[in-house]
Fold:
Amino acid sequence: MKDTQSGVALLPFLVFVIIFLGSGIILDDFYAFPASVAALCGVISAFLLPKAGFQEKLKFFMKGCGEESIITMCIIYLLAGAFSAVSKATGSIDAVVFFGSQYFSAQYIPLGVFLMASFLSVSAGTSVGTIVALTPIVMGFAENTQTDINVVAASLLCGAMFGDNLSFISDTTIAATQSLGCQMKDKFRTNIMIAFPAAVIAAVIFIFLGGNSSSSVLESQASGSPSIWLIVPYLLVIVLSVLGVNVFLVLLVGVLLSGIIGISTGSLSWLDFANKIYEGFSDMNEIFLLA
Structure:
């Protein structure tokens, strides 16, 4: 007699999906209800299933939490959060905006925003963080150059999503590669074959949608001239990741280099460096618990 699996086993997953999607649709905000709490509801429903006893279910649950791939994923999340927080505190975002704005005429502001958002997102591993960080800056660019604000917003959104799709330290990339047991560089090569053609098409569109401005040079809103060294940690993380260096080493080097640069430029003290690392850990709490 064949052993058939019951569809009831999918109940915990359905509970999670219904609660998470349902609350997001009803509240019109998918961040209003914590995803980790929705996952907890799914876990509780799994314990309520009639098959097997409570102790046996608890044993399997703990065994799953202790899986090597899960622990690896969680540690990578923490390191990615630390790198993002430390590099941001050193002024790396302002540096990206400053140097990016130096090479774009004001009439090509949508293209410039798209490229800056792509670089920052692929470096920091967060599309939402990129949008939050760049929105006030690029909206100022749009106002000063009389560029359609809708086009600028679209270029920012497209760049952030494109970069996050290719990032080696994005939470979705980490989850996908660790759960499936594939190399990050292999996922990158596959994704770039899909995303790059779309990015080229988007870039061409943004060139033609550029604003009509009397200004020939896009003026950065960053105060002063930031050091080019502030961008080095981002570049190093990208290069090492593409070369296939272990992601733990890549992120650790990125965190340490960002901290050293921040301390040497006076933007961080040793205590600030430590606090920013912890702040990065804290920023990853939800995805850490969800994993």
Q: What stands out?
A: The chain has three domains: 10-49, 85-103+226-290, 106-214. The radius of gyration is 22 Å. The chain has a mean pLDDT of 81. Residues 139 and 149 are 7 Å apart (CA to CA).
